[in-house]
Structures are given as C-alpha cells and as structure tokens.
Amino acid sequence: MTRPLVFVSCGAPVAPLLAALAQRYVLVVPDGVIAERLRAAGLEALPWQAFADPARVQAIRAAAPGLSDAWMARLAAADVAWGFGGRDRRAACLAGVRAVVERTVASQLLVGEIGRSLVATGRLAAIVLHEDVTAPVRALLAASGAAGVPSVHLPHGVYARERLVGADVHGTLHADVVAVGGTAQRAWFLARGVPVDRIVVTGNPAWDRLHGLRRDAFPPLGLPPGPVVTLATSWIGGDSAHRSHVARLHARMTTAAIAAVARIRRVRPDVRLVLRPHPSAPPEADAALIRHAVDAGAMPDRVERGDATALLARTDVLVTLPSSIAVEAILVGTPVVSLAFAYDGDAVRPCDLDPEAVAAAVQAALDDRGDAFAARRADFATRYAGPSDGRAGERVLALIADLVARRAVTAAPDRLDVARGLAVASRWADVVDALDGDERPDALALRADAFARLGRMGEAEPCFRAALAGGAGAAAHAGLGLLLLERGAHAEAEAMLRGAAALDATSDLAWCGLGVLAALRGDVDGAVPLLRRALAINPANGDARGALDALVGG
Amino acid sequence: MLLRDVYAAGTRVLAAATGFRVPPGDDRAPCLVVVDPSRPEEPADHDARLLRLVGECAADGTVALIACGGTTAPGVLAPRGWSAVQATLTAAGFAVTLTPFDVLGACSPWRAALGVRRDRVLAELDAHLAAPSVRRAAALVETHLVVRLAPEQAGRVLVVGRRGSAPPPVPAPSRAAFDAAMRPLLHDDAVMRWLAFVDAELLTGAGVDLVGWMRSVASPAVGRLLRSRGRWWHEDLEVQRLGEAAAHRLARETIRALDGEVAATLEYDLVAAFNEAIGAWVDEERPA
User: Fold this and answer.
1) What span, in angstroms and rounded, lies between the C-alpha atoms of A40 and B168?
2) Which residue ranges in chain B fall short of pLDDT 50?
3) Which of A122, A51, A53 is CA-nearest to residue A426?
C-alpha cells in the first residue's frame, strides 16, 4: 500500500519531528535540496515540486503576467483610500503592490496547484509548519484546507506584546491548530482572538534537547580565564513596521551592551565578550559587528556562529536583543539581560538602553545563581517552554496523530471533491474513473466535462444532458453549450450559453462561447466585448484569448 | 451631552417624540432656558419648532438646539441646517454661539463624500467604535478638536442663542489637556487601529499632520505606564505603531479590492511592502 504523505516545513521546531514522522509518512518538503538531504539521512522525502503537473506549470507561467496586469487594473479602479500621514500615497502604494504581485503571483499559483495535486493524491494526511503566514504556506493551506487536510503550526519565535493586536500577521492563525511553547505564547494568541480550542500547549520540540542538559558536558570555549558575557543580536522580519527605525534602535541596543562590557572591564579586565550574530544575519555582517564593538569601546574575544547550546552552556551572562535565544539560555541555566524588551516572569532582567544600567544588570546577573535563580528559571520555563520535560516532540506527534485520526473518522473524502482536485490538476481520465456510477448532477456535469476534454464527445453529450435533467447549474449549461457550438448546433448552443451566463455571470466559459458564436455569425463588434468580459473574469482562458487575437490582432 | 451642558433647573424642554432625552422641564413660558431636543436630521417642521423656541424664551434667556452641520447650500439634505437657524436667531436678537461636533456623524461632509464606499467604510468605523478606548479617544477628539472646526466641517452643531444678560458659553478645553489625555491612549491597540483608519479616510488631504502630532505628544514618561503592562517604550514607538496599523490596513484593503483566494495569501508580502514604504515616508518627514 502506498504510504501517506505529510508536508513539513522543516524549521527549527519541526526538524526534531522528521525522523518520527518519516516512520509513518513520506515527507513532502518545500525544497529539492532539503529532500536530498533527508534522503541522504535515510528518510523518505519528496520535494513538493514533484507533485506539479508540468503542463499546468507551463500554463501558469504563461498566464501569470496577464493575471498580474488584470489584478493591477482592478486595483487601480478600486475604491481604496491610499492615504498615510495626511497625504495621498496612491502612486507609491500601487507601485508597491505591483512589485509584490509580479514577484509572487506565478509562484503562488504554482503552490496552489501543488497543494491541489497533493490533495488529489488522496494521500496527504497532514501539514506541519514552523510558520503559517508566509505567502507560499498560505497558498498551500488554502488549497489543502478546503479538502479538510489538518494542519499544525509550531511557532519558532517569541512574539512581542508590542505587536499591535488586530494588525499583526502573526496574530491570525491560518493552520487548524497552533502548538505553543508555553503559557506566555498561549496568552499571546488568546489576546489576538485565536479560539482556545485551537491552541495546545505542547512545548517547543526544538528545546527538548535542552532538557536535563549538563552545562559542564560542553567543552570550554577556549578563551582565556574569566566570566563570559555573550551578546546575541536579533533579526528584523519583513513584517516589522518601520524597519529602518527598528534597525537604528537595535544598533543603539548593541552599542549600549558593548559599552556596558567596556565599563565592567575597567573593574574586571578578565570579562570575555563573545558576539553571537542572529543565524539569519549574513556572514558578511560579522565584520561590521566587530567594528561596531570596537567603536563602542570593547574588543570582542570571539564571534561565534557555531552550536548555540554549547555557547550558552559556557556563557555566564547572555545579553540579548529581542530573540528566542533568551529562552534557550534560561533553559540551559544561563542568566539573561534583555535590552528594552520584557519577558514574562522575573528570570530575565530587562534593562534600559543605558550602558550604566546594562553594566549594573550584567554584574548582578553574573552573581545570580543558586536556589532563587533556579525558582525563577523554572517559572520562566513553564511560561515559555511548557512542561520542559524533553517530551514536547512526543506531544506534537500525538497531536498530529489525533488530528489525522479525527479527520479519517469524521471526514471521509467525498469522491466529487477528489474529482474536483483531479480536474484542477487536468487529470481528466482519473476524473472519469473517480465519478463512474455517481448520478449526482454536479458529478455528472464534471464527468461530462472530463469526457469533452478527452475528446469523447459521444459520451460527453448524454452525460451533460443527464446532468441538466437532474438540475445541474451553470457549468453544465456552459459545457453543453460549448460542445454544441463545436458541433455546429448554434441555436441550441446559444440557448445553453445564455442560460449559463444567466445562472452565473462569472462563467468565463459562457461569455467566451457567446463571443465565439457572435464571431462565427460575423458580428465582430458584438464578439469583442464578450471575449474581453471572459478574459476579465479569467485571464488564463486560452480560447477567449485566441479568438480575441484573431479578431483584433495581438 | 452638549445639550445637557445647557440644561439647568427650570429649563423648558420642547417635547420631542424621539431624540435627546432630558427630564421634563417647567412649561410656563417665557423661560430662561429653552431646549429643543429633537434630531435635526429627522423630518419635522423645524421652522415652526424654532419659532416656538424663540417665542418661549425670556428676554434675557438662552435657547439651545442641535442643527445639522456641513454645507447648507440649497438642495443638500439638511432638514435643519445650522446657518438657517443662526440667521433666524440673529434676526430675533440672539447672540449665537456655534459648537460643531460629530465630525464623522450622519450629516457630516465626510460621510457625504464617501459615495459608494459609504457602507463599507461606516461598517469599519462601527467596528472600531466597539472598543471603549476608541470611544474615549473619539470623545476627546470631539470635545477638544472638532469644537474648533468650522460648522461646515462637522456633522452637527450645537446652536446656543443668548439674549440680554444670559451667561456666555464655556470656552473649549485646552489643547494641552487633549494631548495629556490622548498620550496613554496611543498605546491602546484599538485606538491605534482607529487612528490609522482616521488618518487614511479623514485626514488625507486635510493638512493634518498626525505623525508630527504623535511625535510632539510622545514622552518617555509613558514608558513607566507601559512597563507596568510588560511593554517597553522607545522614541518614535507611537509612529511605528501607527505605521504598523496602517500597513496592515492597506494590505487588507488591497486584498479586499483584489477579491480572490490567491490575493489573500499575499498578506505577509503586502504588509512588508507597505511597512517599507511607510518607514521611508516617516523617515522623510523626521525632524532634523
């Protein structure tokens, strides 16, 4: 029997689950290189591109520019207030949207196609994500969610309370369920209106490996003797408002932290400074970071991009900008000073951007050991990492299994839904097979359409007529109308196509058929607006495009 | 609220089937204070009511009523326009004070200009006003800022006419009081979303520099309040939050206009694009 599929996004919280998931599922991943790596590690994995029909990919690529233009024309005519700061920003806003649309529309259509193809296999059991807001993931969820494929989001970052409720992309849950690290993250999602039954506290699987860790199990950093202060920088995502200002603010934070270390060194020259760039920062940024440190008055002993856990275990105090590394440090048992960012609980010392204040906080943290710190640390772990027992991964796997089982019980896929997925993937012979014996009008209409597309007109026509006799809607009218048009039965074709347009004014097939009919009757002036209407509804309608080109030229 | 300020013991209240509710007053004319609580936008014989109001007011008395704001040019729907009321009262020997309010209200020029967008924009306004903090902020704007507008710019106008030795009206509260009251509200998420709405829908082209005002009222002192809520303050945080709300709103409006499943999936990229643009605009206008 063919094994079921699970889509995995492979970010930090998902990666620890891959080996266990691969025992039951074939892993589908969003990148060919990742699939190669997983296969090299002995896990059965496929890139999602493997599920794209090459013909459909080609059609999408051909249609995308036209779709971009159609969208922008619609947007330019739309009644949107494009103002900010008291001024009309229409031109700049439209230019910004155009850049996004032109950059993404083809890939979004492609991911949607992949999603529908994955669903059409009937094997896609679940989707597991470390991020559920980015465009490709949203397209995948849109395609798979309609078919009831369950999805789980495992947030990989620490979300800030400063982010505006109701105006933050992360505050809307697009997956079915979010598996949060602890109570702080649960409260964050609740405050943003995510229903309580869609939030499950599991802990973060990425932090399971930190459970029961012995700090002295890691080798020393190889620095001269002295307490180690590590400064971790942060990352500013594309969804952050006023990024240039935030970047300046982060630079000020970095300066304050380094200047604080310089002050401490005046009384404790043996204090070591290690710089830890954010993993998403490019390697070429390291030199600038070192220069920044030197300018701020403290020569760093090292820039460390290696294993974060080993570094944190050998760090005496972590000074951090807003970042999830603060959670990892506390779990490892390293005191943390946080610059201008407040974590829940008392374990992390928040601090103003004043070198004097940072220096005082670091010195206090250097002496912060013993039972009091242990108690604050345990409280913090509960807030950010749930039970912190090293079994978050097990809980997430159980959650996935539960969601998959519930779907199997409650939502056995309807074969018409399956056939619709196959139709989107242009698998017409499979559509005919899938709907064999199904007498529902919509099933008959779809099967008739599949017959027609396979050129089996003798079977298509009675199937369409049976669908219409059963009460099928616009699609059946349009399908039979086009078939009759092709056969030369123009009078009945016109009646069918007009019926389709009356039932569904957004039927591009109906308007296209009426346009072609008008052209065949020599009424070019009448045909052109009908064909343009069809193209406005569906720029990818090749028949309408071809007919229009033939009438008015390219 | 405004009529209540005029109301005092012994006030004669003209009966009204609907509208502003006040206790029944002394019905012996002439009275020192006569209030007409009827709604100016509702059909009624407003001319007759106004004449009755004047007739029942003592020689050194005060009359108060609400009139529609906005333009009073012929043909515009304004069953009881402020300028006609002002003219009648002036002719009857009253010194007239106009207090505009309800800048987003039923008769406002802002609503009249919405056109086909009306239902959608008003639905969004209603959603904002569901938050108590937004209603507080809107009330502050009304009582401190809108009262300084011209009657043509407001939805409704409190018209107070005084004759003889009637006491003069109370001056509007100071701008400093408004800034102080609004400062903490700038850290309320619902208020910030409402301000982004107001900025885009009302202030664009009106010459109001919301960003500059936010910078002028921001204060590190607010950091103490925020820290008690587990939040932090830094310079320009208010402007950053306005940008965040505006970027999100622009992205949502774009997706609505494009109206398709694929467009909805672009939310993150659209927000990022608008964030980038808004950041540049805000930087351009940063004081040297």
Assistant:
1) 88
2) 1, 17-20, 22, 74-76
3) A53
DSSP letter (8 states) at residue A302: E
Distances (CA, A) of B25 to A58, A145, A350, B10, B227: 80, 64, 60, 6, 51
Cβ contact A530:A518 at 8 Å:
yes
Find, in chain A, the residue whose alpha carbon is nearest to that of B206.
Answer: A86
Strands B156-162 and B95-101: antiparallel
- Cβ count near A7 (within 10 Å): 28
- Chain B residues touching residue A129 (CB < 8 angstroms): none
Tell me whether strands A83-84 and A87-88 are parallel, antiparallel or unpaired. Answer: antiparallel
Helix (H, G, I), strand (E, B) or coil at A127: strand
Q: Which residue type is seen at B140?
A: L
Residue of A nearest to B279 (CA): A242
In this structure, the dihedral spanned by the alpha carbons of residues A103, A107, A112 and A116, taken in order and rounded to 10 degrees, is 170
User: Any residues with CB less than 8 A from the CB of A401 and at least 6 apart, and which?
Assistant: none
- SS3 track for A264-301: HHHHCCCCEEEEECCCCCCCCHHHHHHHHHHHCCCCCC
- Please indicate, yes or no, whether the overall pTM of this predicted structure exceeds 0.90: no
Residue with tokens 């460390």: A304
Nearest to A78 by CA among B265, B123, B120: B120
The pLDDT of residue A288 is 87
As a whole number, mean pLDDT of residues A226-244 equals: 85
Q: Quick check: B236 and A245 CB within 8 A? A: yes
Q: What is the largest CA-CA distance in chain B?
A: 70
ipTM for the complex shown: 0.86
Mutate which: A164, A341, A538, vs B, most B CBs within 10 A: A164
Phi, psi at residue B269, to the nearest 5°?
-65, -35
Tell me: the pLDDT tens digits for A177-226?
Answer: 999 999 999 999 999 999 999 999 999 999 999 998 898 889 999 999 99
Cis peptide before B220 (omega within 30 of 0): no
Contact A401, A20 (CB under 8 A): no
* Helical segments of B76-232, H only: 82-91, 109-112, 118-129, 132-140, 175-182, 189-198, 210-217, 222-228
Q: Calculate the dihedral angle through the C-alpha atoms of A172, A178, A183, A187, rounding to the nearest 10 degrees.
A: 20
Return the DSSP state at A166.
T
Q: Which of A105-119, A266-280, A478-492, B220-234 has the lowest mean pLDDT?
A: B220-234
Mention every residue, 6+ apart, whose C-beta is less than 8 A from residue A79. B115, B116, B117, B257
The answer to whether B193 contacts A167, with C-beta atoms less than 8 Å apart, is yes
- Is the CB of residue A332 less than 8 Å from the CB of residue A380? no
| A212 phi/psi in degrees, rounded to 5 | 70, 15
Q: Tell me how far apart the terminal alpha carbons of chain B are, to the nearest angstrom.
A: 43
Residue A5's beta-bridge partner residues? A26, A124
B261 vs A: CB within 8 A: yes
Residue B273 tokens, joined: 């694009």
Instruction: Return the amino acid letter for B34.
Output: V
